[in-house]
Write a structure and sequence with these properties.
This is C2H2-type domain-containing protein. It comes from Larinioides sclopetarius. Belongs to the krueppel C2H2-type zinc-finger protein family. One of its GO terms (biological process) is negative regulation of cell differentiation. Keywords: DNA-binding, Metal-binding, Nucleus, Repeat, Transcription, Transcription regulation, Zinc, Zinc-finger. There is one protein chain. This protein has 381 residues and is an alpha+beta fold. Helix content is 44%, strand content 14%. It is built from 14 helices and 26 strands. The strands form 13 sheets. A two-stranded antiparallel sheet has the order 1-2. A two-stranded antiparallel ribbon has the order 3-4. Helix 8 packs antiparallel against helix 12. It is elongated, with a radius of gyration of 34 Å.
Length: 381
Protein backbone atom coordinates (compact mmCIF):
# COMPACT_ATOMS: atom_id res chain seq x y z
CA UNK A 1 0.00 0.00 0.00
CA UNK A 2 2.61 2.56 1.14
CA UNK A 3 5.81 0.42 0.92
CA UNK A 4 6.85 1.30 4.48
CA UNK A 5 9.21 -1.33 6.00
CA UNK A 6 9.02 -2.83 9.54
CA UNK A 7 11.38 -4.93 11.69
CA UNK A 8 8.72 -7.43 12.74
CA UNK A 9 5.54 -9.00 11.39
CA UNK A 10 3.67 -7.71 14.45
CA UNK A 11 4.56 -4.07 13.75
CA UNK A 12 3.47 -4.51 10.12
CA UNK A 13 0.16 -5.99 11.29
CA UNK A 14 -0.50 -2.98 13.56
CA UNK A 15 0.53 -0.52 10.81
CA UNK A 16 -1.78 -2.20 8.27
CA UNK A 17 -4.75 -1.18 10.42
CA UNK A 18 -4.11 2.47 9.44
CA UNK A 19 -4.94 1.47 5.86
CA UNK A 20 -7.82 -0.90 6.61
CA UNK A 21 -9.35 1.22 9.37
CA UNK A 22 -9.56 -1.89 11.58
CA UNK A 23 -9.95 -1.15 15.33
CA UNK A 24 -10.12 -4.47 17.21
CA UNK A 25 -9.66 -3.05 20.74
CA UNK A 26 -12.91 -1.53 22.05
CA UNK A 27 -13.68 0.10 25.40
CA UNK A 28 -16.40 -1.78 27.34
CA UNK A 29 -17.51 1.48 28.98
CA UNK A 30 -18.04 3.89 26.06
CA UNK A 31 -17.44 1.63 22.99
CA UNK A 32 -14.58 3.80 21.69
CA UNK A 33 -12.32 1.57 19.53
CA UNK A 34 -8.57 1.61 18.83
CA UNK A 35 -6.15 -0.16 16.43
CA UNK A 36 -3.62 -0.87 19.26
CA UNK A 37 -4.02 -2.44 22.73
CA UNK A 38 -1.74 0.24 24.24
CA UNK A 39 -4.08 3.00 23.03
CA UNK A 40 -7.03 1.25 24.69
CA UNK A 41 -5.10 0.97 28.00
CA UNK A 42 -4.38 4.73 27.91
CA UNK A 43 -8.04 5.41 27.17
CA UNK A 44 -9.20 3.24 30.09
CA UNK A 45 -7.00 5.32 32.40
CA UNK A 46 -9.17 8.32 31.48
CA UNK A 47 -12.21 6.48 32.83
CA UNK A 48 -10.30 5.80 36.06
CA UNK A 49 -9.71 9.55 36.42
CA UNK A 50 -13.40 10.16 35.73
CA UNK A 51 -14.24 8.17 38.86
CA UNK A 52 -12.98 11.09 40.95
CA UNK A 53 -15.34 13.56 39.30
CA UNK A 54 -18.79 14.64 40.41
CA UNK A 55 -21.29 14.29 37.56
CA UNK A 56 -24.07 16.73 36.88
CA UNK A 57 -26.82 14.54 35.38
CA UNK A 58 -29.97 16.53 34.66
CA UNK A 59 -30.52 18.84 37.63
CA UNK A 60 -29.00 16.48 40.22
CA UNK A 61 -25.50 16.65 41.64
CA UNK A 62 -24.45 13.09 42.56
CA UNK A 63 -21.68 11.47 44.59
CA UNK A 64 -18.57 10.11 42.84
CA UNK A 65 -19.66 6.46 43.07
CA UNK A 66 -23.30 7.02 41.99
CA UNK A 67 -22.22 9.38 39.23
CA UNK A 68 -19.81 6.88 37.72
CA UNK A 69 -22.37 4.05 37.82
CA UNK A 70 -24.88 6.25 35.99
CA UNK A 71 -22.22 7.22 33.46
CA UNK A 72 -22.06 3.63 32.30
CA UNK A 73 -25.79 3.56 31.62
CA UNK A 74 -26.62 7.01 30.26
CA UNK A 75 -25.06 9.95 28.44
CA UNK A 76 -23.66 12.57 30.78
CA UNK A 77 -21.46 15.05 28.92
CA UNK A 78 -23.58 17.83 27.39
CA UNK A 79 -22.52 20.32 24.70
CA UNK A 80 -22.95 23.93 25.87
CA UNK A 81 -23.83 25.01 22.31
CA UNK A 82 -26.46 22.51 21.15
CA UNK A 83 -27.19 20.48 24.34
CA UNK A 84 -26.27 17.20 22.60
CA UNK A 85 -24.99 14.62 25.12
CA UNK A 86 -22.10 12.16 24.89
CA UNK A 87 -21.05 9.01 26.83
CA UNK A 88 -17.40 10.13 27.03
CA UNK A 89 -15.65 13.46 27.58
CA UNK A 90 -13.30 12.72 24.66
CA UNK A 91 -16.28 12.45 22.31
CA UNK A 92 -17.62 15.77 23.57
CA UNK A 93 -14.21 17.37 22.92
CA UNK A 94 -14.26 16.12 19.32
CA UNK A 95 -17.83 17.37 18.89
CA UNK A 96 -16.91 20.85 20.19
CA UNK A 97 -14.37 21.21 17.37
CA UNK A 98 -17.28 21.36 14.91
CA UNK A 99 -18.78 24.36 16.72
CA UNK A 100 -15.42 26.10 16.97
CA UNK A 101 -14.56 25.31 13.36
CA UNK A 102 -11.35 23.57 14.46
CA UNK A 103 -9.72 21.21 11.96
CA UNK A 104 -6.34 20.22 13.41
CA UNK A 105 -5.68 17.22 11.13
CA UNK A 106 -4.55 17.80 7.52
CA UNK A 107 -4.05 15.51 4.52
CA UNK A 108 -0.35 15.17 3.61
CA UNK A 109 -1.22 15.05 -0.10
CA UNK A 110 -3.68 17.94 -0.65
CA UNK A 111 -3.66 19.73 2.75
CA UNK A 112 -7.42 19.36 3.18
CA UNK A 113 -8.20 19.75 6.90
CA UNK A 114 -10.38 17.55 9.13
CA UNK A 115 -11.86 17.63 12.63
CA UNK A 116 -11.06 13.97 13.38
CA UNK A 117 -7.80 12.12 12.70
CA UNK A 118 -9.71 9.04 11.50
CA UNK A 119 -11.30 11.17 8.75
CA UNK A 120 -7.82 11.90 7.32
CA UNK A 121 -7.11 8.17 6.99
CA UNK A 122 -10.47 7.70 5.26
CA UNK A 123 -9.86 10.71 2.98
CA UNK A 124 -6.41 9.41 1.95
CA UNK A 125 -8.13 6.59 0.09
CA UNK A 126 -9.32 9.14 -2.49
CA UNK A 127 -5.63 9.59 -3.38
CA UNK A 128 -4.45 5.99 -3.00
CA UNK A 129 -7.62 4.51 -4.60
CA UNK A 130 -7.44 1.89 -1.85
CA UNK A 131 -10.65 -0.11 -1.28
CA UNK A 132 -10.22 -2.20 1.88
CA UNK A 133 -13.89 -3.12 2.36
CA UNK A 134 -15.25 -5.90 0.14
CA UNK A 135 -18.69 -7.47 -0.18
CA UNK A 136 -18.88 -11.10 1.01
CA UNK A 137 -21.53 -11.87 -1.62
CA UNK A 138 -20.21 -10.35 -4.88
CA UNK A 139 -16.66 -9.25 -3.88
CA UNK A 140 -17.28 -5.63 -4.94
CA UNK A 141 -14.79 -3.34 -3.17
CA UNK A 142 -15.38 -0.03 -1.39
CA UNK A 143 -13.23 2.78 0.01
CA UNK A 144 -15.54 3.33 2.98
CA UNK A 145 -17.35 1.01 5.36
CA UNK A 146 -20.53 3.10 4.90
CA UNK A 147 -20.40 2.41 1.14
CA UNK A 148 -20.21 -1.34 1.78
CA UNK A 149 -23.09 -1.09 4.28
CA UNK A 150 -25.32 0.64 1.70
CA UNK A 151 -24.31 -1.84 -1.00
CA UNK A 152 -25.08 -4.87 1.24
CA UNK A 153 -28.74 -3.83 1.27
CA UNK A 154 -28.94 -4.74 -2.43
CA UNK A 155 -28.34 -8.39 -1.48
CA UNK A 156 -30.39 -8.39 1.72
CA UNK A 157 -33.24 -6.39 0.10
CA UNK A 158 -33.23 -4.36 3.32
CA UNK A 159 -34.99 -0.97 3.04
CA UNK A 160 -34.75 0.73 6.44
CA UNK A 161 -35.75 4.23 5.27
CA UNK A 162 -39.54 4.54 4.91
CA UNK A 163 -41.54 7.34 3.28
CA UNK A 164 -43.96 8.78 5.84
CA UNK A 165 -46.46 9.61 3.06
CA UNK A 166 -46.79 6.38 1.05
CA UNK A 167 -44.81 3.94 3.28
CA UNK A 168 -42.50 2.96 0.41
CA UNK A 169 -39.11 1.71 1.66
CA UNK A 170 -35.63 2.72 0.46
CA UNK A 171 -32.14 1.31 0.99
CA UNK A 172 -30.50 4.74 1.51
CA UNK A 173 -31.45 8.05 3.11
CA UNK A 174 -30.48 9.83 -0.12
CA UNK A 175 -32.94 7.79 -2.20
CA UNK A 176 -35.71 8.57 0.29
CA UNK A 177 -34.89 12.29 0.06
CA UNK A 178 -35.19 12.21 -3.75
CA UNK A 179 -38.44 10.20 -3.54
CA UNK A 180 -40.04 12.71 -1.14
CA UNK A 181 -39.82 15.34 -3.89
CA UNK A 182 -42.54 13.41 -5.76
CA UNK A 183 -44.89 14.22 -2.87
CA UNK A 184 -43.69 17.78 -2.20
CA UNK A 185 -43.31 18.72 -5.87
CA UNK A 186 -39.88 20.16 -5.09
CA UNK A 187 -37.64 20.59 -8.15
CA UNK A 188 -34.36 22.12 -6.97
CA UNK A 189 -32.43 21.64 -10.23
CA UNK A 190 -33.39 24.12 -12.97
CA UNK A 191 -32.10 24.65 -16.51
CA UNK A 192 -30.39 28.03 -16.99
CA UNK A 193 -31.39 28.01 -20.67
CA UNK A 194 -35.14 27.33 -20.60
CA UNK A 195 -35.85 27.39 -16.81
CA UNK A 196 -37.31 23.86 -16.84
CA UNK A 197 -36.87 22.31 -13.37
CA UNK A 198 -36.20 18.74 -12.19
CA UNK A 199 -36.24 16.84 -8.87
CA UNK A 200 -32.91 15.11 -9.58
CA UNK A 201 -29.53 16.43 -10.77
CA UNK A 202 -29.25 13.45 -13.13
CA UNK A 203 -32.47 14.53 -14.88
CA UNK A 204 -31.15 18.08 -15.35
CA UNK A 205 -27.86 16.79 -16.80
CA UNK A 206 -29.77 14.68 -19.32
CA UNK A 207 -32.00 17.66 -20.19
CA UNK A 208 -29.00 19.99 -20.70
CA UNK A 209 -27.59 17.53 -23.23
CA UNK A 210 -30.76 18.04 -25.28
CA UNK A 211 -29.83 21.71 -25.66
CA UNK A 212 -26.47 20.71 -27.13
CA UNK A 213 -26.69 21.19 -30.89
CA UNK A 214 -30.19 22.61 -30.56
CA UNK A 215 -31.26 24.91 -33.42
CA UNK A 216 -34.44 26.78 -32.45
CA UNK A 217 -34.15 29.62 -35.02
CA UNK A 218 -35.35 29.06 -38.61
CA UNK A 219 -34.93 30.87 -41.91
CA UNK A 220 -38.36 32.06 -43.20
CA UNK A 221 -37.33 31.34 -46.81
CA UNK A 222 -35.70 27.90 -46.76
CA UNK A 223 -36.45 26.66 -43.20
CA UNK A 224 -32.77 26.07 -42.45
CA UNK A 225 -32.22 25.88 -38.67
CA UNK A 226 -29.66 27.80 -36.59
CA UNK A 227 -28.41 27.87 -33.01
CA UNK A 228 -28.29 31.68 -32.77
CA UNK A 229 -30.70 34.37 -33.97
CA UNK A 230 -27.75 36.36 -35.37
CA UNK A 231 -26.84 33.38 -37.58
CA UNK A 232 -30.29 33.58 -39.21
CA UNK A 233 -29.70 37.26 -39.99
CA UNK A 234 -26.34 36.48 -41.63
CA UNK A 235 -27.87 33.57 -43.54
CA UNK A 236 -30.74 35.72 -44.92
CA UNK A 237 -28.20 37.84 -46.78
CA UNK A 238 -27.49 34.79 -48.96
CA UNK A 239 -31.09 34.86 -50.20
CA UNK A 240 -30.83 38.54 -51.21
CA UNK A 241 -27.89 37.90 -53.56
CA UNK A 242 -28.53 38.22 -57.33
CA UNK A 243 -27.97 34.53 -58.02
CA UNK A 244 -30.51 32.39 -56.22
CA UNK A 245 -31.50 28.89 -57.22
CA UNK A 246 -35.10 27.80 -56.72
CA UNK A 247 -36.69 24.36 -56.97
CA UNK A 248 -39.22 24.08 -59.85
CA UNK A 249 -41.22 21.51 -57.90
CA UNK A 250 -41.70 23.13 -54.45
CA UNK A 251 -40.23 26.65 -54.98
CA UNK A 252 -37.70 26.21 -52.17
CA UNK A 253 -34.79 28.65 -52.69
CA UNK A 254 -31.06 27.85 -52.46
CA UNK A 255 -27.99 30.10 -52.59
CA UNK A 256 -25.84 27.43 -54.24
CA UNK A 257 -26.62 25.26 -57.25
CA UNK A 258 -25.06 22.25 -55.50
CA UNK A 259 -27.58 22.61 -52.66
CA UNK A 260 -30.45 22.69 -55.18
CA UNK A 261 -29.11 19.57 -56.93
CA UNK A 262 -28.95 17.69 -53.61
CA UNK A 263 -32.49 18.84 -52.79
CA UNK A 264 -33.84 17.66 -56.19
CA UNK A 265 -32.97 14.07 -55.28
CA UNK A 266 -35.90 14.17 -52.83
CA UNK A 267 -38.32 14.77 -55.72
CA UNK A 268 -36.70 12.52 -58.36
CA UNK A 269 -36.09 9.68 -55.87
CA UNK A 270 -32.59 9.61 -57.33
CA UNK A 271 -30.00 7.92 -55.11
CA UNK A 272 -26.56 8.55 -56.61
CA UNK A 273 -24.57 7.64 -53.48
CA UNK A 274 -24.12 3.87 -53.23
CA UNK A 275 -22.85 1.80 -50.30
CA UNK A 276 -19.83 -0.25 -51.44
CA UNK A 277 -20.73 -3.02 -48.97
CA UNK A 278 -24.43 -3.74 -49.63
CA UNK A 279 -25.03 -1.58 -52.76
CA UNK A 280 -27.91 0.34 -51.11
CA UNK A 281 -28.41 3.82 -52.63
CA UNK A 282 -28.80 7.18 -50.85
CA UNK A 283 -29.87 10.66 -51.97
CA UNK A 284 -27.14 12.46 -49.98
CA UNK A 285 -23.54 11.81 -49.03
CA UNK A 286 -24.46 12.47 -45.38
CA UNK A 287 -27.09 9.71 -45.37
CA UNK A 288 -24.56 7.28 -46.88
CA UNK A 289 -22.04 8.22 -44.16
CA UNK A 290 -24.60 7.43 -41.42
CA UNK A 291 -25.53 4.12 -43.13
CA UNK A 292 -21.90 2.97 -43.34
CA UNK A 293 -21.78 2.96 -39.52
CA UNK A 294 -24.06 -0.10 -39.60
CA UNK A 295 -21.26 -2.00 -41.33
CA UNK A 296 -18.34 -0.54 -39.39
CA UNK A 297 -20.11 -0.65 -36.01
CA UNK A 298 -19.01 2.94 -35.37
CA UNK A 299 -21.03 4.75 -32.69
CA UNK A 300 -19.59 8.27 -32.28
CA UNK A 301 -22.39 9.70 -30.13
CA UNK A 302 -22.31 8.56 -26.49
CA UNK A 303 -24.52 9.37 -23.50
CA UNK A 304 -22.64 11.35 -20.84
CA UNK A 305 -24.73 9.73 -18.11
CA UNK A 306 -24.72 5.97 -18.82
CA UNK A 307 -22.06 5.89 -21.60
CA UNK A 308 -24.41 4.07 -24.04
CA UNK A 309 -23.28 4.82 -27.62
CA UNK A 310 -25.29 5.52 -30.78
CA UNK A 311 -24.53 5.71 -34.50
CA UNK A 312 -26.93 8.65 -35.06
CA UNK A 313 -27.15 11.88 -33.03
CA UNK A 314 -30.97 11.85 -33.22
CA UNK A 315 -31.04 8.48 -31.40
CA UNK A 316 -28.84 9.88 -28.62
CA UNK A 317 -31.23 12.84 -28.26
CA UNK A 318 -34.19 10.46 -27.94
CA UNK A 319 -32.27 8.32 -25.42
CA UNK A 320 -31.44 11.38 -23.27
CA UNK A 321 -35.16 12.03 -22.83
CA UNK A 322 -35.36 8.81 -20.79
CA UNK A 323 -32.77 10.13 -18.32
CA UNK A 324 -34.44 13.55 -18.20
CA UNK A 325 -37.86 11.97 -17.77
CA UNK A 326 -39.11 14.05 -20.72
CA UNK A 327 -42.10 12.84 -22.73
CA UNK A 328 -42.92 15.60 -25.24
CA UNK A 329 -45.41 13.59 -27.34
CA UNK A 330 -48.90 13.09 -25.91
CA UNK A 331 -51.91 11.05 -27.02
CA UNK A 332 -54.75 13.36 -28.20
CA UNK A 333 -57.36 11.04 -26.66
CA UNK A 334 -56.05 10.13 -23.18
CA UNK A 335 -53.05 12.51 -22.83
CA UNK A 336 -50.65 9.65 -22.07
CA UNK A 337 -47.13 10.97 -22.78
CA UNK A 338 -44.30 9.30 -24.73
CA UNK A 339 -40.64 9.95 -25.52
CA UNK A 340 -41.09 9.21 -29.26
CA UNK A 341 -43.70 10.36 -31.79
CA UNK A 342 -43.85 6.82 -33.24
CA UNK A 343 -44.85 5.49 -29.80
CA UNK A 344 -47.91 7.78 -29.85
CA UNK A 345 -48.89 6.42 -33.28
CA UNK A 346 -48.60 2.83 -32.02
CA UNK A 347 -50.46 3.67 -28.79
CA UNK A 348 -53.40 5.24 -30.71
CA UNK A 349 -54.30 1.78 -31.99
CA UNK A 350 -55.49 0.90 -28.46
CA UNK A 351 -58.19 3.56 -28.98
CA UNK A 352 -58.94 3.07 -32.71
CA UNK A 353 -58.71 -0.76 -32.62
CA UNK A 354 -56.79 -0.49 -35.91
CA UNK A 355 -54.99 -3.70 -36.94
CA UNK A 356 -52.73 -2.95 -39.92
CA UNK A 357 -50.64 -6.14 -39.74
CA UNK A 358 -52.13 -9.31 -41.26
CA UNK A 359 -50.88 -12.89 -41.52
CA UNK A 360 -50.26 -14.05 -45.12
CA UNK A 361 -51.20 -17.62 -44.20
CA UNK A 362 -54.47 -17.27 -42.26
CA UNK A 363 -55.35 -13.55 -42.69
CA UNK A 364 -55.53 -12.97 -38.93
CA UNK A 365 -54.93 -9.27 -38.17
CA UNK A 366 -52.86 -7.59 -35.45
CA UNK A 367 -52.34 -4.11 -34.00
CA UNK A 368 -48.59 -4.56 -33.63
CA UNK A 369 -45.89 -6.04 -35.86
CA UNK A 370 -44.36 -7.83 -32.85
CA UNK A 371 -47.69 -9.62 -32.28
CA UNK A 372 -47.73 -10.73 -35.94
CA UNK A 373 -44.15 -12.06 -35.68
CA UNK A 374 -45.09 -14.06 -32.57
CA UNK A 375 -48.18 -15.44 -34.34
CA UNK A 376 -46.26 -16.50 -37.51
CA UNK A 377 -44.23 -18.94 -35.38
CA UNK A 378 -47.45 -20.96 -34.88
CA UNK A 379 -47.40 -21.79 -38.61
CA UNK A 380 -43.67 -22.55 -38.77
CA UNK A 381 -43.69 -25.20 -36.01
Amino acid sequence: MCKKVFTSKGYLKVHSRLHTGEKPFACNICSEAYPQRLQLVRHLNLHEKEKSLIYNLGNKVLSKETGFKMLLGERSFACAFCKKTFPAKSKLEVHLRRHRGEKPFACVVCNKAFTIKADVATHLRTHTKEKPFSCDVCSKEFSHRSGLKKHSRIHTKQKPFECHVCKKGFSTKGNLKVHLRLHTGEKPYSCNICSKAYPQKMHLEAHLSLHEGEKPFFCVICNKAFTLKTDVKTHLQMHTREKSFSCDVCNKVFSHKSSLNTHLHAHTRQKPFECHVCKKGFSTKGNLKVHLRLHTGEKPFSCNICKKAFSVKAKLKTHLRRHAGEKPFACVICNKAFTLKTYVKTHLRTHTREKPFSCDLCNKVFSYKSSLNTHVRVHTR
